[in-house]
Specification:
By secondary structure, the protein is an alpha+beta fold. The protein folds into two domains: 155 residues; 222 residues, paralog of FGE (formylglycine-generating enzyme) (Alpha-Beta Complex), CATH 3.90.1580. It has a four-stranded mixed sheet with strand order 10-9-8-11. Helix 1 packs antiparallel against helix 4, helix 1 packs parallel to helix 5 and helix 2 packs antiparallel against helix 5. The longest helix is centred in the middle third of the chain and has 34 residues. It is globular and about 65 Å long.
Length: 412
């Protein structure tokens, strides 16, 4: 993490904190108390838990260690809302977060208000040494809450999908998106290969897993100027892509067989996977909508993305190829649509060092068995994206807004 905020920015920090914390409450405002308590699968968390956990993070990492005389709202919450920080003590099991009917939603809101007020006082009154030590952690807390703002939406989408009524997250007044024109064939942006520098070097914030900046050798390659669309993916499905073992990695084929995958998650089948786009529907935050064949395909696992690339006579880009392509002339849809699977394992960069203290558990201990995604999705908070950002999930994860773009070997 790279940040050393100046004393003169304290007022700005207080305003940022208030806006960001209010935004979390705004995201949950369309949800009932019942909606906010449900946990639809072990990988997801209740919205109420997200609100409490992000508050716990500020309490455990900023206020407890650095604000003299801070008094917790409820010391029992330190156990309930710890996520995975072994150095900070035991915690409630992740798969059982949906059993936390108490504290109620009103009490969680009161907890947030208590911590917000303590943060306001701390930002205004902390001595110079306290501020210098705590400000980078405060920034980490802000970025951490933005990550959970996205998770609030991805997790509630799955919970609502599990409801036979298929209720919309947003109000009934939400407009149906316009269907776009069919996407043109992708153009291929060539890169000659060679040594490139990858990773964050400042200024500004970055998570520790984005550092240190280091050279990487690329081979000549081409990368598609756009994302794979729903219409593209329908062609894969119509060609029997989910039934051709030769297209799939072994673990992916096992997942297809075990789970019965035959389309992206949240697609509602017309009864025949070869049916035209006009007969398909997609469940999203606006509820059930007609499938838009020009929209980027979303809610794919890495296995599905890799199988599609194999079928298309291409491959997934590495995360280094993706980062190098960011901002290149002619390339589009790099952020703001879907997280993009890469063919890169989530490994430490050469010379990687976790942050000191409890926050050293934030990223480094997950660097095994995960794949890197790059970019940012339609539900990633504004300003949270950057070209060096390394998101990561296990290869079978499908409930995120995840899609793909293609790459090919050779510069021509």
């Amino acid at each position: 993490m790279k940040l050393q905020p100046a004393e003169s920015r304290r007022a700005e920090w207080g305003e940022r904190l208030a806006r960001m914390r209010s935004h979390s409450l705004a995201l949950t405002a369309p949800l009932s108390a019942e909606d906010q308590c449900v946990q639809s699968m072990p990988d997801a968390s209740p919205a109420k838990w997200h609100l409490a956990h992000t508050t716990w993070f500020f309490e455990a990492v900023v206020l407890g260690p650095h604000a003299a005389g801070y008094r917790p709202f409820d010391s029992r919450f330190f156990h309930l809302f710890n996520s995975y920080y072994e150095s900070l003590g035991p915690r409630h099991p992740r798969p059982q977060r949906g059993l936390l009917t108490r504290p109620g939603l009103d009490e969680v809101h009161a907890y947030r208000a208590h911590v917000d007020e303590a943060l306001r006082v701390f930002i205004a009154d902390a001595g110079a040494a306290q501020w210098a030590a705590a400000a980078p952690l405060l920034e980490l807390g802000l970025q951490h809450e933005q990550q959970h703002q996205e998770l609030i939406l991805t997790d509630i989408l799955h919970a609502l999908w599990c409801n036979p009524l298929l209720p919309a997250y947003r109000s009934e007044t939400a407009t149906t998106p316009q269907r776009g024109a069919p996407a043109a064939a992708p153009e291929w942006i060539a890169h000659p290969g060679g040594a490139v520098d990858i990773g964050h070097a400042g200024p500004g914030f970055a998570f520790d897993n984005e550092t240190p900046r280091h050279p990487v050798m690329l081979t000549p390659h081409r990368i598609a100027d756009r994302l794979v669309t729903c219409g593209d993916y329908l062609e894969f499905m119509a060609d029997g892509g989910y039934g051709q073992a030769a297209l799939w990695l072994s673990d992916g084929w096992a997942a297809v067989q075990a789970a019965g995958w035959n389309s992206p998650w949240y697609w509602i089948a017309p009864g025949d996977p070869r049916a035209p786009a006009a007969q398909w529907q997609v469940f999203g935050l606006n509820g059930v909508q007609p499938l838009d064949p020009s929209a980027p395909v979303s809610h794919l696992s890495f296995y599905e993305a890799a199988a599609y690339a194999q079928w298309a006579g291409a491959r997934l880009p590495t995360e280094f190829e993706w980062e190098c392509a960011f901002g290149a002339p002619g390339i589009g849809q790099m952020t703001g649509h879907v997280w993009q699977w890469t063919r890169s394992s989530y490994d430490p960069y050469p010379g990687f060092r976790p942050m000191a203290g409890a926050v050293g558990e934030y990223n480094g201990k997950f660097m095994v068995g995960q794949l890197v995604l790059r970019g940012g999705s339609s539900v990633t908070p504004a300003g949270h994206e950057r070209p060096t950002y390394r998101n990561f999930f296990p290869p079978g994860a499908r409930w995120q807004f995840s899609g793909l773009r293609l790459a090919k070997d050779g510069a021509c």
